[in-house]
Fold this sequence. Notes:
Helix content: 25-40%
CATH superfamily of the largest domain: Ribosome hibernation promotion factor-like
Largest sheet: 4 strands, mixed
Oligomer: single chain
Amino acid sequence: MTLRISGKHIEISDAYRTHVEGRVGAVVEKYFDGGFSGRVVLERDGAGYRVDCALHLDSGLDLQAEGRGHEIYPTFEQAAERIEKQMRRYKRRLKDHHHDSRVVPDADANYVVLAATPDEDEELASDYNPMVIAEETKSLRTLSVSGAVMAMDLADAQVVVFRHAGHGGVNVVYRRRDGNIGWIDPAAIAKGDSVSL
């Protein structure tokens, strides 16, 4: 277990650090047998506090939760309860039960963050080009579609790009504006299968 507990412009007491380590350790032990690493960051949020908790399990899954409140202990408990809820929801999948002995290594893919586009009612300048804010390389994991949806839920992300376990092609799952999940499979599009977004 490697858990980094820090505060942004806040001093973390030993009692708080011990409480966080004990609670996170108990939650993970309850639902997962392997090791994990993660971080818990406490920061001021207006008149209250905000806790951001991110865990990475040795099985490859990432969990993310946030808590907000006026006191530091209940704020952390809110984030810990969300992590526990995610682990309870996916407890069968948290254990790495691969009956297939072949291991597919993760691939690296470039990841680019662009500046936000103007709102729909704003006019775009004729020479408008979005500015690249960040560019880095991220690991492209091999997952099933349901595994990618689970990874997106656990990480509380809007989009997950992954290598499809069935055919090896790059796929995308994303959250739609209506709350549903979208799936883009370029291999199916290339074959002429109908795909609705």
